[in-house]
Write a structure and sequence with these properties.
181 residues; 5 helices; 6 strands
């Protein structure tokens, strides 16, 4: 974490400032451009009801189409990802290498650039993933990986807050529907 205190403080500030994770992700991504060669920063979350991993937020939305896919995730794949989410740890993929089988549900396309992917843990055993896609022609270094790892906590908190906000909206809608009937 040495040398990341200022950027980590700024990331925590933005993660806590916005109720919706989409707003904070876009701002945080812009802040990180001076520290890591990002082409894209993506938050993916598990939707347990539909047994899919879906894109929750995107920084630098110019490459949005690549991330629009909801990826099925059930059975052994779900257990493997849940185990990784509990243990933590960043996985790195180098451009041109075969994608780690653990990442297939998280990254729904053939990755032709470097990737850093880390699990985000939430309340009630919910989880998601923070995906760093390197900019065209760039590679991630050990220092980039270290920075990505310290960003997992603020993004975990932002994802948990976003999930709570969505749950409250569903409860509100259900209560309003019940009151109308």
């Amino acid at each position: 974490m040495h040398g990341f205190h200022r950027v980590l403080l700024d990331v925590w500030r933005e993660a806590g400032r916005h109720l919706e994770i989409g707003q904070s992700t876009e701002i945080i991504t812009e802040m990180l451009l001076g520290h890591i060669p990002l082409g894209q920063l993506v938050v993916r979350g598990l939707d347990p009801r539909r047994e899919t991993i879906e894109t929750v937020a995107i920084g630098l939305p110019r490459e949005r189409a690549s991330w629009s896919t909801a990826t099925p995730c059930a059975g052994a794949d779900l257990r493997r990802l849940a185990s990784w989410a509990k243990k933590g740890g960043m996985l790195q993929h180098s451009a041109g290498a075969t994608l780690n089988p653990r990442l297939r549900a998280v990254v729904p396309f053939a990755a032709d650039r470097d990737l850093l992917v880390g699990p985000l843990s939430g309340p009630d055993d919910s989880f998601g993933f923070l995906v760093f896609l390197a900019g065209e022609g760039h590679a991630f270094t050990r220092r980039h990986r270290e920075l990505a790892e310290v960003l997992l906590d603020p993004f975990s908190a932002a994802l948990a807050n976003d999930q709570r906000l969505r749950e409250m909206a569903l409860l509100r809608d259900a209560a309003e529907a019940e009151n109308r009937s």
